[in-house]
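Person: Show me a sequence?

Helper:
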Amino acid sequence: MTKLNPLTTIERERIDAAMKTAGARTSADFALIIVPVSDRYTLYPLLWSAIIALSVTGIVALLRPGYSIQTGFIIDSALFIALALAFDWMPIRMWLVPAEVKRSHARQLAHREFAVRIVAPGTRRTGVMFFVSVGERYAEILADRDTHAHAPDAIWNKIVDRFLDAVKAGRLADGVVDAVEACGAILEEHHPPPVS
């Protein structure tokens, strides 16, 4: 188990088994998406490197007015390059990105994946997707409009809250399995498996 792959083999097998079991009881689709990060956020290391480098160069120019422009340029360039390389390390990069931006990017990726995997032409257009972005610490459950309408908001909110609580507690597999089983019960009732 690593930051890039937060599930062990046994946990992945448990989730796969739960999704297959729930999927066999309904005509709806299930999808699980776990991504290390929702975006590369390449702008933020460069932006912060430039701000810090220019600020330091400005302070040096105020404290040492005798320095030439060439010396200021060398200080600025060297500091910018060093900071850009250091800030390119993903844990630092994620720390530099505002929380609202991270949530927005994770949410956008979740909805794009949902559109492709659940409601795109060629799919059954009915189902539930579980999305987790590890770097942003973001999790979401998405259901198509018809499926969502089949259960009161209180039931969906309870499923989502239990899922989020498990994810925050570091029990991602338990949260997914529990949510799959709960969503499977709703889907089984309203989208039974096709009669063969």
Observations:
- The chain has a mean pLDDT of 89.
- Residues 43-63 form the longest helix (21 residues).
